[in-house]
Amino acid sequence: MTPAIVSIIIASLSLGISATTAWLTLFRRGRLAMTKPHVVFFGFDDVPKVTAKIFLRGLLYSTAARGQVIEGMFAKLTRTGSEQTFGFWGYGETTRLNVGSGLFVGQTGVAVNHHFVLSVHEAEYRFMAGAYTVEVFARLAGVRAPRRLQTVEIVVTDSHAKALRRHEGVLFELNPDGAGYSGHARPRPALNGGETFQFDVD
Prior knowledge:
This protein has helices at 3-27, 158-165, and strands spanning 32-34, 39-45, 51-62, 68-79, 82-86, 88-93, 96-99, 103-105, 110-117, 130-140, 147-156, 169-174, 181-186. It is α+β, with helices and mostly antiparallel strands. The chain starts with a helix and ends in a 16-residue tail after the last strand.
């Protein structure tokens, strides 16, 4: 094999490696994903009126280096054939919530609290005893159809339903083996000056 042929082979391999690297880092879109939430909360916000909400915390991450731009998120709650969309999305930490109006997610991920609140224009939603499915969706920039990121199964017991009828909340924690959630009621704290109901996740 002559030196000229060896040089051509090496140059071709280098070009192939460069093209592959460029595709992986610049062009491959990948997908947006979400880890299984450790906690899920059913409860209520108070402003401008008592409104049902779903809270959860999970890590959003992109499988590609270029990352993903989220335009909006929403949650669907299903029980025995009935479906309700919680379309008002806020994210952040306990002391600071941002209205969900755009979020960039890279490969390292973004771990924040996600609050999905029923629109104040919707009729009152009543949590009943039974098995629920919570589906979390994201609308991505440049993508027409929403992407389902996570599906969680929750069981609301009779005692949970009674607490929710009193407009208290129920916090569901993921079991250590990752199979199912265990819930317990949380009394609502006294609110000052019309603050939105929030709680700490330790």
